[in-house]
């Protein structure tokens, strides 16, 4: 367990892997699949309701005073990443399959993480307040921007059949629960803070259900027979390349734009992350009826790589007690 902690691999990540294996080994069908589909939809709605209830719009608006910092982070998340994803189109279908490339492009469109971005910024002695606002703002805007980017950019690749009709599902399953959460926030926020641990079970349980459903459907549709071990290795290499490129560019941009060292840690750690917690539920809505298991696989791989690499970087900076190490 100490070894896993050093690699920043927690029990939840292992649970995701275990559920993915279970979904592949024991796929459901018929009535069971129908029940699973409805349970997944309900879980996703509840998940985004909790997201809306937890996010304080007042704090987010107050933090916008540091607009230059947040603009750079958002540009990395929703401009730099998508451009890299589009450029990697040259890899399909020779290096990776079209479905896996769809997943690579999709991971480039989801918002940043919240918890790990803040945690790594804190470890590296950066601007924690700035990280809180940047990460939260990314998730808030991502509820709107990610589906829009998927609809606009996926059609240019010809890999995914996402069209404007998906807006109805997005509104019903994602935006409506999120807005309801914002509306009831004054009534439930104290309860959510008091019972934070039980609500984490709802969060993580919803994500695990989405993963099980995605891999169950993929196995039932026999999509894994089209994936080779070489392609999986290629996806890992692509994820490493994307993360390395973004880390290098954000470090360079933070220095060139004249940000303070604490703010540069925010740009690097918030600007290089992609959220598994938000990305998986969105994928199940946006790519309904498609090989979701393959589509979310690059995001799952990237998520673990980013945790390991960024944990190592943050710990290195903390030991040196010198944020200048970010650029080294």
Automatic annotation (TrEMBL):
Top-level lineage group: Bacteria
One term under GO cellular component: plasma membrane
Residues annotated as transmembrane: 7-26, 38-57, 69-92, 104-124, 131-154, 166-189, 232-254, 294-314
Keywords: Membrane, Transmembrane, Transmembrane helix
Pfam families: SBF_like
InterPro entries attached to this UniProt entry: Na+/solute_symporter_sf, Put_Na-Bile_cotransptr
Name under which the protein is recorded: Bile acid:sodium symporter
Organism lineage string: Bacteria, Bacillati, Actinomycetota, Actinomycetes, Mycobacteriales
């Amino acid at each position: 367990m100490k070894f896993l902690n050093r690699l920043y691999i927690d029990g939840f990540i292992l649970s995701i892997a275990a559920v993915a294996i279970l979904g592949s080994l024991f796929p459901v069908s018929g009535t069971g699949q129908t029940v699973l589909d409805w349970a997944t939809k309900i879980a996703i709605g509840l998940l985004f309701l909790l997201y809306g209830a937890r996010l304080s719009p007042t704090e987010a608006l107050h933090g916008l005073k540091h607009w230059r910092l947040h603009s750079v982070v958002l540009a990395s998340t929703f401009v730099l990443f998508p451009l890299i994803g589009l450029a990697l189109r040259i890899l399909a279908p020779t290096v990776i399959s079209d479905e896996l490339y769809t997943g690579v492009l999709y991971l480039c469109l989801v918002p940043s993480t919240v918890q790990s971005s803040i945690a790594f910024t804190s470890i590296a002695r950066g601007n924690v307040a700035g990280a809180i606002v940047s990460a939260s703002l990314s998730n808030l805007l991502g509820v709107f921007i990610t589906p829009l980017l998927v609809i606009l950019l996926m059609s240019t690749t010809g890999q995914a059949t996402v069209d404007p009709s998906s807006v109805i599902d997005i509104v019903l399953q994602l935006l409506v629960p999120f807005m309801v959460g914002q509306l009831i926030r004054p009534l439930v926020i104290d309860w959510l803070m008091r019972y934070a641990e039980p609500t984490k079970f709802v969060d993580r349980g919803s994500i695990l259900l989405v993963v099980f459903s995605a891999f169950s459907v993929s196995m039932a549709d026999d999509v894994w027979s089209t994936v080779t071990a070489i392609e999986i290795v290629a996806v890992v290499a692509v994820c490493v390349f994307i993360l390395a490129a973004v880390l290098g560019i954000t470090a360079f941009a933070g220095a060139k734009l004249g940000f303070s060292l604490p703010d540069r840690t925010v740009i690097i750690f918030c600007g290089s992350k992609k959220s598994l917690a938000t990305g998986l539920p969105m994928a199940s809505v946006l790519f309904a009826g498609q090989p979701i298991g393959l589509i979310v696989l690059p995001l799952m791989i990237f998520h673990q790589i980013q945790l390991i690499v960024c944990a190592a970087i943050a710990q290195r900076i903390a030991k040196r007690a010198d944020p200048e190490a970010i650029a080294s």
